[in-house]
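Q: Structure tokens for this one, please.
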Amino acid sequence: MSPPGARVSERRRFAIGLLAAGLGLAMLPLVGLSGLLAFTAATALALATWAWLRWSYLGKAARASAQDGPMAGAFGVDRRRLSLLLAGLSSAYAGVAGLFIALNHTLAPSQIYSWIGVVFAAVIIGRLGNALGLLGAAVFIAASEALTMAVTAPGWAPLVSFTLLILILLLRPEL
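A: Here is the predicted structure, written as tokens:
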């Protein structure tokens, strides 16, 4: 663990040093059980969504409707029922996300402003409509913000997601 009597910032740096040394479980005390559960749930939901969109009839219908709605309707896709299903599924995903945010953070009405930029950057970097890309982008942004908070002041962390977004859009404009 960390040296006895160490402050929180020193413990973070010590844990990141252990992680860099190759001990993958050294970061667990910083993440906590609720963070690990949130990551597990996000991974499971992203993989299930990806598989559902790729292999099920409804997933193929959703992709076809997103690509060309009138043509999908001409092939027999009931777009109204599909949109109701997707709205319900999106609401359920938002409920799961809200649950894990409430477990890990204090909730306040003004917090929307601190989360909207990070979510926007993750969606743009991970590509809209790509469940696994979104998960990868979210993990990448979260790891870079955590590293920024451990190395510098925590106030610099929100700047990281926008900096990553700008750099990736400059280097790969086809995103």
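A few notes: Residues 56-107 form one domain. Confidence is low (pLDDT under 50) at residues 8-26.
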